[in-house]
Amino acid sequence: MKIKALCSFLLTLLLLTSCYKEDSEELGSSNPLHGTWIAEQVDGKEILTNDKFVFFFAENTQHIHAHLYYTNQGAEWAEDVCYFEIKGNTVSISGAYTNGKNISIQSTYALQGDLLHIQVEKYIYDGTEMPAYIHKYVLRKATENLYDKLIGIWKGGSTTPGMIGKYDAYWRYNKGTVGTFDYKYFDEEKQAYVIKEDNDGHFYLYGNLLVTTYNNDLQQGTKGKECESWMITTDGMHMEWVGRRENNTTINFSLDRVTSSDY
Hints:
With 263 residues, this protein is mainly beta. The protein is built from 2 helices and 19 strands. The protein is elongated and about 60 Å long.
C-alpha cells in the first residue's frame, strides 16, 4: 500500500519540528495540554490515516511532534523534540530547526472534552512570515495503552472486499525503546511462509494509532523506505486494523494472536 505525496498538507506538519527553548518555565501539573494527541482534521477536512501526526505535551515544557517525512530514500517517521510556552489560551513555540533556521509560532487553542482545537495565528521561518502555514487543526487525546496487548505474534490478512486473501501473513511485534517487527509472507513458489529478510521493520504506538516503517513494499514491488499507519482495536487476542486512504477508500485487516510454535 504505497503512500502518496502529501503535497501542500505536508508543509503544515513542519509547524513544530526540531525546535529548542532554553528559558521556558516549568508548567508542572498546571499544563492543560498534558498528554498525547492524534491529529484528525485540518481546516475541517479529515486527515487520512497515513497522514496523521501526533503531538505530545509533557507536564513541563517539552513537546514531541511525531510525523511522516520524506527523504530521497522514501517515507520515514520522526519524533522531534520541541519546547513550548502557554499563556492563557495561547501556545508559543520558538527555537530552530535541525537545519539551523529559526522559527517562531503562535497559536491559540481550545479544549472540548477529548478534542484539542489549535488555530495557528502566526508562523515565522528564518525571519520571514509564512501565511501559507496558517491552518486550523483538530486532535483527539489518546486514552488507551495497547502496547502490551500488541506485543507478540499475529496472523491474518485483509478483509476488504476485492483484497480478501491477498495479504495473509504473520506479524511479530518485539519490545524495544523503538519496537521492531518481523513480517512473514506466503511465497507462492515455495508454497510456504518465509521471513521478509530486508524488512527492517519498526513500529510506533500512540494510543490506538499504529505507525510502521519498513523497507521495500513487497506487494507493490517498490524499493525504498515505507511508512504505513493504522487505527487499531485489540483485546490482546484479536486485532482489527482500519486505514482511511485516498479516494475515500477504507482498508481493513483482521488478525488473531498465534503461538511461537505456529510461527
